[in-house]
Every structure is written in structure tokens, then in C-alpha cells.
Amino acid sequence: MDSTSISCLDTTSLFTANWNNKSIFAYLGEPQTREKFEVEILDSNKIFSIPICGKFYRGFSRGHDGVDIGLSKGDSVKAAFDGKVRYSAFNRGGYGNLVIMRHYNGLETYYAHLSKLLVKADQEVKAGQTIGLGGSTGRSVSPHLHFEVRYRDKPIDPQKIIDFEKSQIISGCRLLVDNNKNEPRPLRKNSTHKVKRGDTLQKIAKMYGTTVQKICKLNNISAKKPLKRGKRIKVS
């Protein structure tokens, strides 16, 4: 199975390092690097599936790390991307019956309040495959799906990468992971970088998960030309 393109991620250890079937958070206590790098949400060879088609009635906010989508008890809940189940169990912290999947770009998706779990930990799953049935288990007052997207435990607003009305990934969306900030943020086409003291093309390329050649082509510059401090250059 091909892996989604991602920079600064060792895909060979993706399903072994920090792989925990017992805890909902796999990176607790893990030291954070100060690097920035870019994660491709979905490449042209991958399939995305909306987890459930239903009324969208609560979004991402402080204290609510995902989105809530209405459903009827027993409705099929599907995996958003290809990946592997890291956690499939009842969670007493409020999620109820919960499935957590890790995907080939390092993202994890959470599917909570299920009435029934249909997959097991360590099981490989395809996008669109039913992983559970909708319900209202855990801290819930009515049947709905609580859906989260995380990278190394950090929550990401799903609406920044998924168009729920059109049931598709937002075109051209990539994710900039900056460990100096609390939340990874989308990086779309035509993003720029402001040159700072000490910046080199090699350093900037590594920061954004690209190459010196691509940056030079985007900006019509030579790799040998010194960068001017304060100037903005295209990185995607």
C-alpha cells in the first residue's frame, strides 16, 4: 500500500513508534522539535470518504476539539482515509465507543459516541469502509458523530481541511505543522515565507517540506543568489 507524501516523517515507523492501543493520546510526554514541516492532506492517488452525511450542528472551538454531525442510531460511520486502527474501545473520558485511526500522512481521525465498534485495534482499513455504527454512548445527549482530526495529539479544525457540504477535501489544502504553535494550520497554494536573518534556501525548503529547485522555479531565482532579508518568497 502506497503512503501519502509527507516530509519530515519516518513512514517506516509510522505504525510502530508511539503506537498505543490503550491510550487515546499516543504522544503524551513526547519531546517536541522546533521544526516546521508540511503534511500533504491527500494526494491524487488517495480516496477520501465523508464519515457520515448528516446535519452539521456544532463546530470546532475552545474546549470542543472536533465537529458534531447528527445521525440516527445504527447509521454506518465510515473511515475518512486509508489507514490502520490504533484504538477501538469504550472510553470513559466522554468519547464513549471510540475508534481512532492513524493514516499514511501521520494524521489521526477520531470517531466517537458509536453504538457499536466494527473494527479492532491494529486492523488495516480503507477509506469508505464502515468502522462503526452511530450512537450516543459516552458524554452525549442524542445520537451524533463527534469527529476529530489530530496530528501528534494536537487537534486540527476539521472544517479547515474538509468541505462538509460538498463531502470533499478542500482543494490544494496542505497542513503546516509548527511545533512552536498549539494548532497545525492549513497551508494552501501560493503560500509565502518572509526571509529572516540566517535563512537559506536549503533551510526554508526543509521548513516547508519542499525542495530548493521548486522554490527557485516558483520565484524565478537562482539557487546561488543570496536571499534578501524581509523579502517574501513563494513556497507553494
Structural account:
- This protein has 236 residues and is mainly beta.
- It has two domains: 45-168, Glucose Permease (Domain IIA); 190-234, Membrane-bound Lytic Murein Transglycosylase D, Chain A (Roll).
- Helices cover 6% and strands 33% of the residues.
- It is built from two helices and 18 strands.
- The protein has helices at residues 201-207, 212-219, and strands at residues 36-40, 56-58, 67-70, 76-78, 83-91, 96-103, 107-114, 116-117, 124-125, 130-133, 144-151, 154-156, 162-163, 168-169, 174-178, 185-187, 192-194, 232-234.
- The strands form five sheets. Strands 2, 3, 5, 6, 7, 9, 11 and 12 form an eight-stranded antiparallel beta sheet that branches.
- A hairpin with an 8-residue loop joins strand 2 (56-58) and strand 3.
- The longest helix is centred in the C-terminal third of the chain and has 8 residues, at 212-219.
- The two termini are 27 Å apart.
According to CATH, the fold-level topology of the largest domain is: Glucose Permease (Domain IIA)
CATH class of the largest domain: Mainly Beta
Helical residue percent band: under 10%
Q: Strand share of the residues?
A: 25-35%
Write down the overall mean pLDDT: 83
Please summarize the sheet with the most strands.
Answer: 8 strands, antiparallel
Query: Can you identify the CATH superfamily of the largest domain?
Result: Glucose Permease (Domain IIA)
Strand runs, count: 18
- Which architecture of the largest domain would the CATH scheme give at its second level? Distorted Sandwich
* Large-scale geometry: elongated
- What sequence of helices (H) and strands (E) makes up the elements? EEEEEEEEEEEEEEEEEHHE
Helix/strand-derived class? mainly beta
User: What's the domain count?
Assistant: 2
